[in-house]
Amino acid sequence: MKKYIITICLVFLSAAITTEAYAGYCLNANKGFKTSSMIKRYLTDLAANSSGYAVVKTIGKSTGMGKDITAILITENASWEDNRGKNSVVITGAIHGNEWATPEVCIGIAEYLLENKDNDEPARDDRGLLINEGATRKTTRRKGNEIIPEVTSIKELLKRIQVIIIPVLNPDGYDFSYTDEGRRSFYGAGWRENLRRHQQSTEVCYQRDGTVFPRPPRDAEHCFLGDYDLTSLGGGVDEESVIICESIGKKEISLFQPTLEIDSKDMLDAIYSSDSPRRVFCTSPHRRVWKHEWSADNNTSISFDKAKAEGYLRDALGVDLNRNFRYKWDVVKGQEHLFIRTRSYASRLYRGDDIFSENETRMMERLVKEKNVVALIDYHSGSTQVLYPYAYTKTERVKGNFFSGKTNLNDYEVFRFISKKIASILNRHDRGDSSIVNFTTGQNYLGSSVGSGVARDCYYSNERIAALNIEVHDRRYTYEDEEYRTVVPKICKTNVPGAIWFLFWAVGINQRNIY
Fold this sequence. Notes:
Elements: H1 2-21, H2 36-48, E1 54-61, E2 68-74, E3 87-92, H3 101-115, H4 154-160, E4 161-166, H5 171-176, H6 180-184, E5 204-206, E6 221-228, E7 242-246, E8 252-256, H7 265-272, E9 279-283, E10 288-291, E11 302-303, H8 304-309, E12 313-314, H9 339-342, H10 359-370, E13 373-382, E14 384-387, H11 411-426, E15 440-442, H12 455-463, E16 466-474, H13 481-506
Parallel strand pairs: 3-4, 3-13, 6-9, 6-10, 13-16, 14-15
Antiparallel strand pairs: 1-2, 2-4, 5-9, 6-7, 7-8, 8-11, 10-12, 14-16
């Protein structure tokens, strides 16, 4: 009996020690929001104490303010100059400035890797559960086309692959989102884009099929994307809400049918079917319309001069970096209604003047080529989903067999499997907050949203990279300080184990023994 009790105690003690050994990550998240420069200093400190396992580098400059874009490379004998025959996996955060939890997830991954760089035991999460439990089963027999990575420890992982982590891909937008004005942007959802100042000074107007008028028509009202607070009517806080039409002669502006959804065919049809007066959709960097309330009947026009004087007619600013990538950039066919947003300087979804027009996206294009990148996670906030290509369509599927390995799965089936596996890891523990768990998987944001020029589509289609987008917090972006210190560490702890499993899987890509 005494021997039995001692055995039980030893088992519990061993479990406690194991859990403690893997709990040393995401500790930085409870210190509150950090600017991009503070994050750079922290990464530099991590590298300085890594015994040669990490090096930090400024890999680019932001478009608007010229701020450093900082990356930490983690591997055995880390070097930016020599890949040492290894492939790389890239992990990015804050491509959208207001998605504050994502840099902390990236930092948490770096902390986990460096904390366990000498650990050759199977990796575990903060509650002691094995991350790659399939590879530690007594039998390694796979169930059908089950995907089981061969690597189980961080020590082995860092011998075989480089991990490049960029916590803040959009430092301009990220830092600005923490200012008073940045926090107020989009009715409290926060600033999303970078801070490019647009050089274009002329107005551009579009025909119904998305083609450009040779010159803006003088016999029509010019209608622009507007931002209007509809929360009291049940509207969202993170989307542009209305169209504002400018009278012929440019003397006044008025709301156009605020009951219609911006990104709907009904809105597009309503604009272009108008004949008294005729209306067309236009965009200009000098027509960013923000208004918190209009008259009760929504029909009162406001003079152009008053709109400028009261400050809700202003210059547009910024590019959505996750609409600026090469693949399917500026898609019109089948998505005609979306050009109201993606082509509008005033939109938080503005795609940029051209493919890779921004320093941030051009830098990523160079990086994935130079560092033999085979897999990538792009962290976002706004839902709890693991998303795979293609974002630009709800019907087309990826085609290829680049990641099939020892299975008979095509790439679409591989994406579905690994996404579901990661989601299952992220859903393991009840963190006391349903908005940071309950992960689902899919091709489209919230199951139905499409977007062109999106990073994961480009990485897969142009570079054959296994690219995922992981959304870490349902309908949340920014936080007050106390909430940040409470919820963001939980988000970090939730998401790091899923990233580690993905890294284990990525070790075998392009080696024909993936699983």
